[in-house]
Amino acid sequence: AQSVSQHNHHVILSEAASLELGCNYSYGGTVNLFWYVQYPGQHLQLLLKYFSGDPLVKGIKGFEAEFIKSKFSFNLRKPSVQWSDTAEYFCAPPQFNKFYFGSGTKLNVKP
Amino acid sequence: EAGVVQSPRYKIIEKKQPVAFWCNPISGHNTLYWYRQNLGQGPELLIRYENEEAVDDSQLPKDRFSAERLKGVDSTLKIQPAELGDSAVYLCASSLVLAGSYTEQFFGPGTRLTVL
Fold this sequence. Notes:
The structure holds two protein chains of two kinds. Chain A is an all-beta fold. Chain A has strands spanning 4-6, 10-14, 19-21, 23-25, 33-38, 44-50, 56-58, 64-68, 73-78, 87-92, 94-95, 98-99, 105-110. Chain A is built from no helices and 13 strands. Chain A has a five-stranded mixed β-sheet with strand order 2-13-10-5-6, with no helix packed on it. Chain A has a four-stranded antiparallel β-sheet with strand order 3-9-8-7, with no helix packed on it. A two-stranded antiparallel ribbon of chain A has the order 1-4. Chain B has no helices and eleven strands. Chain B is globular and about 45 Å long.
């Protein structure tokens, strides 16, 4: 069965710190990978996506993610976080057009 | 462009009562999803429609949950009767799926259901 694992449930950082959120999925084959974000009081929205090509993908607001096929991972990174990055982040690798969302990581950035 | 619209935003009911949620997807999107999100967890798919057809309802508790998508546009999700464990946020999402390709889903604000 497909599964998604997000290792960090709650992360607290100070502004300007670097961020890396882990995401591992359990299946092989063709992989399309997504990260979604939910800012306080807002809808879930797409942060970035990987379909093919360069395994390092850029998203909105300075986020990036790297697909490492050998590790079944798609970790999210940002070199310098801002207070406005406080949100909940979900990894969502779909298969057969069904999105398997991770349990989410709550990021709290202290000003 | 209007996003995915859901109503109501909040609903409080007593157990054993029925409840219904409504979703209007983004115009032109052929695929509609209903998710349930429990506190501290990611969304879990309940049902997925491609146009009018429910193509994946394997996670829908069919003894008490039902859904419909008339004319392939709006959709309604119903619970009857509601149980305490149904308290959650119910999310609707839509996307344009072409030739089986994976595409971004656009989410509505959700309906927060509290069952007392």
